[in-house]
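Hi R.,

Here's the chain you asked about this morning:
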Amino acid sequence: MKQVKSILNIRKFVLALFANCLICLVVFWLFLFSFVHASTYYVRTDGNDDCNGLTDIGGTTDNCAFRTIQKGIQTALGGDNVIVRMGNYTNETLASVRSGSSGNLITIEAATGETVSIARITIDHNYHVIKGFTVSSPVAAGAIQLNGNYNQALYNTILGNNRADSNMSNGFGIIGNYNIISYNTLDGQNNGENTSFTVGFDFGGDYNEVTYNLVKDTNSIERVFEMNGNYNRIAYNEVRNVKWTIGDASHPDIFQVWGTEGGHDWIVENNYFHDFEGQVGNLGIDGNDAGWYNWVFRNNVFANIIMEFFIYFPIELYNNTFYRVTTINTCTIFQTAYRNGAVKLRNNAFIECGCSENNGFYNSGEDADYNFVSNTATGGTKNYFNEPHGINGGNPQLISYNNNCTVNTCDFNIQSSSVLINKGVAISGISTDYVGTSRPQGLGWDIGAFEYSGVKIPLPPSLYLK
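And the predicted structure, written out as tokens:
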């Protein structure tokens, strides 16, 4: 009897050992497959789509690079990379064909340090990375169109194109959700007098991040940010040297939205907008402000902008620096046309903005306090300025300023004797300033985008592109 039990125990042990080994073997093969499966494909102008794409050499068949980017896109699965070598691929129509997955993105990228030119690319699927391309958008289309979710567009250069004013030419079309658009340059330089983007970034989805991008040297861009959707964030971007051809039907706006569908929970923070021949923006609606709420602009710098900001629904502006904003046409920075109290302003510095003969600040309907105004960059008071805790006049002691911050160096950090120090009020949800310095540094919050710390950290967002 004992012998039988021993035999049964041995059999159980062997079966258990076999089962455990089988599980280990399955896990091992799954682990190994996850590495074996990820492939790198190459595209070259001397390749061929009859090749397998697995080797970075030219050829016509077998072990050589593809000729077209689209062949690489069609071949790549989740976790795969498609590396494109230098050359002009603008004759291709590029579009995604399948989704990757979380942790297994499909990456389509230009080879490091090489110029790879494409006409445009549309991503209708999820989990892609589009990286390092030079893109020239055709009329009536986005250069990089992100219709899917969880995609990334990184380190691309998008050139403006000659277009008629009635046609749309977007740098980015962002229809999907949870996309990241970072470290890209939208450049209109040397591309013709009427070269521009009608829209730089055209939002339509939710939870998208647009960070560390540079928009520069454009002519008569209709707007930089078309702001539809919800829960989107615009941060650490630089917009500079935007020209407006007088007589062009569309004057430039940094921000614009118009409609009745509603949009909420936007964050615009730590951006540098300067030398802009147009309006700060036009946030407009038709009829009422239902559905439009929780729009926050904080820690931004606005400098040398010739026109005002039209606002038709509630927004909040905290700790922004405005230098020489509304230098033509009007004396008032904010025009709010819907209802009193629609705009809440705290800790903003308005330096040499608007007219000298009146407040040069905002309408009487705003909810405003703890702000600073001065008639010049070094002081001077404004008439009709009346806030319980506001500061009218005195020297903000900016480190450097100029009426052209593209050609000249401007640094809107403040110095140790600035009248802005310790004159602000604490704002929930904000813990740092424009360059990441903790707030507060002294006895209280400082007014403007910069908290004085004794350490000079002038970091325009475009430095992150280098």
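The longest strand covers residues 272-285.

Let me know if you need anything else.
M.
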